[in-house]
Amino acid sequence: MNKKDIKLAVFDFDSTLMDGETIDLLANELGLVEEVSKITEEAMSGKLSFFESLTKRVSLLKGLPVEKVNSVCQNLPYMNGAKEAISHLKENGVTVVCFSGGFRNATSYAKDILGYDADFSNVLQSKDGVLTGEVGGDMMFDWSKGDMLTRLQALLNISSAETLVVGDGANDLSMFRHAETKVAFCGKEVLRKEANITIDVKDLRELVKYL
Description:
There is one protein chain. Helix 1 (22-28) runs antiparallel to helix 2 (33-44), helix 2 packs antiparallel against helix 3 (50-59) and helix 4 packs parallel to helix 6. The chain has 9 helices and 7 strands, in the order βαααααβαββαβαβαβ. By secondary structure, it is an alpha/beta fold. The chain is globular and about 50 Å long. The N and C termini lie close together (7 Å). The protein has one domain: Rossmann fold (3-Layer(aba) Sandwich), CATH 3.40.50. Helix content is 37%, strand content 21%.
């Protein structure tokens, strides 16, 4: 593969551009991290539908102040090499986008720090400054990332051969189906089986070797 072939790169956020799961860090504020991370693990391994796991986990966050949510989301540990990998792609004329089953509080804040062009994620509903336990947005279902990718490809006139996708869990499978360069980054087995590039080192600079 020649880097000139790639025109669109799509990255997952949690455990890909960010080192960890945003929702686990939010749950930690309520002392519910074990309960939430167990549901996260089931979803990322493909044992639970993403929609079911997302709504179940967010319901446990009910009552968390939005101020606390933003504080957590603005102090996330980004993955080693994330900024450098995105910078490398952009220097070579690639449009870089983030698709996340997580939350806009995190992905929109990280956009200017990491340097990607746009983010598509979910919105935590709130009322009177606290979370209601409800969620909505662009990335609610198992098929959401694939659906959004095909729409972006049509809009930008970019083919699957010109598309690179990077993710770690089961909800990234749908976008793998619409890209010829499929990277499992420290990925779950369900995703590794579908990948044609596997990176097992927690450093996104490893990606550059394949471009």
